[in-house]
Write a structure and sequence with these properties.
The chain is of the alpha/beta class. The chain contains ten helices and 13 strands. The radius of gyration is 18 Å and the shape is globular.
């Protein structure tokens, strides 16, 4: 069997040959076939082909209802935002958080191309820093990524905690029914900054985990907020009892939160 590193190198070599022009593409296969996504072959070939996030889209079908409010945290070019917007319908709403301004602008064009009038794009990264501020983070293929070397290209972005900005975003209805998080290594910070929203509304939660993220810390934090500490793998072929890098897991709300444990989360992230 060829080593995984060799396979990754081949994949990256192929990617470098793909067109970098960002424009509207018709998704060719899968649940979103026929929808338009504004991206490039270089940055997001899996979205154009309709091959990416297939298990997650199936999970959405079972867990997203018309009229829901969903947050897409780390929306990138908006592939999952399309799916969420379709499922929540005209009576629902989706807020897509994407801090890279060029990518957020692409989601705006994707929204218009697909007539997704219930989709709002927020060009902010969520974390636990509190009010709006600017930071620089490594970036690649239209997204910020804390897991890649710091000497790569950087993007200056706006960040804020959801608990601080949600009252100004939600309008008259503060309810949150579900949150999808894919933030390239910033899972702890994002969750810490939405503690109050999770405690108040107990939304359905699906998180993609990345290298270096403290799994036990997140499980303790979510358990203290009344969520199951046994994450449900989104991919049916994943082994139980393990939380693998670059895989998504659902967390189901179970009961009342424990304030004493959840408030310790932000001080234990390191």
């Amino acid at each position: 069997m060829r080593p995984k590193a060799d396979s990754f190198s081949i994949k990256e070599a192929v990617r470098r040959c793909l067109p970098r022009t960002i424009k509207g593409h018709c998704i060719l296969r899968g649940r979103l076939r026929g929808s338009v996504i504004v991206t490039s072959w270089h940055d997001y070939p899996g979205a154009i082909l309709g091959r990416t996030e297939r298990p997650l889209l199936e999970w959405f079908l079972q867990n997203v209802s018309e009229g829901d409010t969903w947050l897409d945290v780390g929306a990138h070019y908006g592939f999952t935002a399309i799916a969420l917007s379709r499922l929540t319908g005209n009576s629902g709403r989706v807020l897509a958080f994407e801090p890279v301004l060029s990518s957020a602008a692409c989601i705006l064009k994707t929204r218009e191309a697909n007539h997704l009038h219930n989709l709002t794009i927020i060009p902010v990264a969520l974390d636990d820093r509190g009010p709006l501020q600017t930071v620089q983070m490594p970036s690649v293929r239209g997204m910020v990524d804390s897991t890649i070397p710091s000497e790569t290209q950087h993007e200056q972005i706006l960040t804020a905690s959801l608990d601080v900005i949600w009252p100004s975003l939600c309008g008259a209805d503060a309810r949150v029914d579900g949150i999808k998080i894919d933030v390239q290594g910033m899972e702890c910070q994002v969750l810490s900054g939405m503690r109050n929203v999770l405690k108040r509304w107990s939304p359905k939660l699906v998180v993609e985990f990345h290298a270096g993220v403290n799994r036990n810390l997140i499980l303790d934090f979510l358990g203290a907020l009344g969520y199951s500490t046994k994450p449900e793998p989104i991919d049916s072929d994943q082994p139980t009892g393990l939380i693998l890098d670059d895989h998504s897991y659902a967390f189901n709300p179970l009961g009342r939160p424990c304030e004493s444990l959840s408030t310790q989360f932000s001080t234990r992230q390191n």
